[in-house]
Amino acid sequence: MVKIGIFDSGIGGLSILREIAKLRLGIEMFYFADSLNNPYGQKDDSFVIARCEFIVETLEAKGANLIVVACNTATAIAIDHLREKYPHLVFVGVEPYINVINQRPELKTRRGVVLATPLTGNSKRFKALKERLDPNNLLDVFTPIHLAKLIEDNFFNKSHAFEFDVKKELLGLSNDYDYLILGCTHYPLIKPQLLSFLKGEMISPCPMVAMRVKNLLLGKFGMTEGDASATNFAFYQSGVSSDFKTLNIDEVFI
Ligand code: DGL
Q: Tell me: the pLDDT tens digits for 30-77?
């Protein structure tokens, strides 16, 4: 069975794993949540790169040769380096889906904002991407400081103050946007909460990343399409688990 590795600075990349699981590819998925070191958005580049190398080597040792960098921050900081250092592995990254304004031109006459972590928003890669895909600067950018960490800490056990704290993180974000581009993989995990007080359309790149994985598996990896279920995955969380353990996706996303 084909094995793939997925990682994030924490549980955010589960938003991509969930989309891959929906495609019922019948693959084995190993997910590494680096929760002990979350958020990457407040670390320096060399720390993030060192963690990415360690995680990639851990996932490779599990037999994965396609690795999804399911974190915008890690993609912005480390994916070029990973591709260079591990040329025998295939990497799929995730970036804020700015290109949606070119793929859906009707959005250009509406108000949009990219939500991202401060490290992603300030990265050279993000700035170059935005300049290339949004040369007329139609999109605003909003970078809540603690939102990813808040989602991280409340994913398995939500505190009573969670929704209040989320609102606090988004103070200063106007509610006039027609659409919001979710530029951090943690954010789609709280889409229902976001929709309870923001009226814009939430746009996430996660389904497209999952399709990219599928196309690579069918192409480069010679997999044949089948109708297999993939409801289980192996999950490791630094600072919490001592090894990968099997989780059922329907139990994680109740
Ligand atoms: N899920 C990560 C991302 O997409 C969270 C960022 C962080 O750890 O700062 O960027």
A: 999 999 999 998 788 999 999 999 999 999 999 999 999 999 999 988
Strand order in the sheet with 66-69: 90-92, 66-69, 3-8, 28-33, 232-237, 245-248
CATH of the domain at 212: 3.40.50.1860
Pocket of ligand 1 (CB under 6 A): 8-9, 12, 38-41, 71-73, 117, 120, 148, 184-186
Å from CA of 204 to ligand 1 middle: 14
Ligand 1, pocket-test mutation among 94, 185, 189, most atoms within 8 A of CB: 185
For residue 225, the enclosing domain spans 2-94+206-252
Q: Does the annotation mark 184 as catalytic?
A: yes
Size of the chain, expressed as the number of residues it contains: 254
pLDDT confidence band for 227 (50 / 70 / 90): low
7/70 Cα distance (integer angstroms): 5
Out of 71, 139, 180, 234, pick the active-site residue.
Answer: 71
